[in-house]
Amino acid sequence: MAEIKAEPSHHHPLIISQPDISDPQKPHIKTKRLASLDIFRGLTVALMILVDDAGGEWPMIGHAPWNGCNLADFVMPFFLFIVGVAIALALKMLPIAVSLNYLFIQLFNLISLLQILVVENTEPLEAVKKVILRTLKLLFWGILLQGGFSHAPDKLTYGVDVKMIRWCGILQRIALAYLIVAMVEIFTKDAQDKNQSPGCFSIFRLYCWHWLVGACVLIIYLAIIYGTYVPDWQFTIHDKDSADFGKVFNVSCGVSGKLDPPCNAVGYVDRKVLGINHMYHHPAWRRSKVGSKHTEHLFRFEPFEPEGILSSISAILSTIIGVHFGHVLIHLKGHLARLKHWVLMGLSLLILGLTLHFTHAIPLNKQLYTFSYVCVTSGAAALVFSAIYALVDIWELTFIFLPLEWIGMNAMLVYVMAAEGIFAGFINGWFIGFKSTFSSEFGIHGRVGMLLYVIFAEILFWGLVAGIFHRFGIYWKL
């Protein structure tokens, strides 16, 4: 379970907030935090709160109904990118691990292999244990918060029918990407990594295993999404408030390689593996204008899992790109060299993704987590991170972003309490109607009132709360 720990508070202009994976028997070496990464994490949490709570009044910042990319569609890839950077920084002090090449050589020598795994690599194995434990914690909190158990903030009840529980979600997707990429990072350590200072391009060769895994992920994803035959299917309306409650609808597909809402392979895989009752029943495509009037009617009820199995496999690519940026930070020592590499790669990804989208080769689609979407959002993450790094870690303008930095240092707390509405549900239990009262007191109504409420009464408020927690050295860690 997640835990809240108190730690001594010491501010550093250049800091790295990552879990310690060192051997507990060895002296603990305090690592610095990377301020720009904390601020980027805090900005992403703030964006999540903004688009979730103000997106209803400002549809242009909410999730794109199907193809396209709005502000809300950058939140998940930003989180995954940040996880990748954090993995590289957290595991950079890990001693030489079990090299895959050496494992292959020793595969038929059982005694030597056991000696390698048990005796000579206690720290890598300790890191593996911590990665697995953290993955399980993320899965637990993800199912608890988004599986249907919590009804906050609108309802004060809790509990879920296990026959209808939602298995996938934001934290579950982060858990999968974190597990895969962290394991690749641990088990592909090479003896030459420690002493080389690679240039801008040789760093790709230095971590070729990561890109090989990324290529395999992309090939598997593209093969399934374009090669899987999607048959006709049906679903039942479970919304008791709907006039169609209990009715069964048939959806005609019988195609393969389609990327439209009802007949894509992403939804088909989730229906077969997860079960249709365990998928998300309020997809963003309900606002889509594609299809006939009949299919538009169906779109309002068809379940679809935006954080499903196949799309989460594709999401691993965002974390692999993030881990590369962490490697650049470790190996390239000059600020200018780092920024050149980051900006060049970010622009390249943006151009590639936009080209694929506007040539109609592969559309931008967050629901399907298409390759063009990976490129555009990862490129945007690269440029935003580069800008924050220049402002904060080079020019030392940290004070401008202090609320975001505090949120980033206690991201799990703010995510649970604010983004998932747990604190709002608690407040509603005592004083219902706070939002309308806030607006009327200051003469603010409608869209502007909601926007100001979210900025000041939620984002800034939680920034200050996180700042108080930071002052006392209290952090919610997984």
Automatic annotation (TrEMBL):
Top-rank lineage group of the source organism: Eukaryota
Protein name, as recorded: Uncharacterized protein
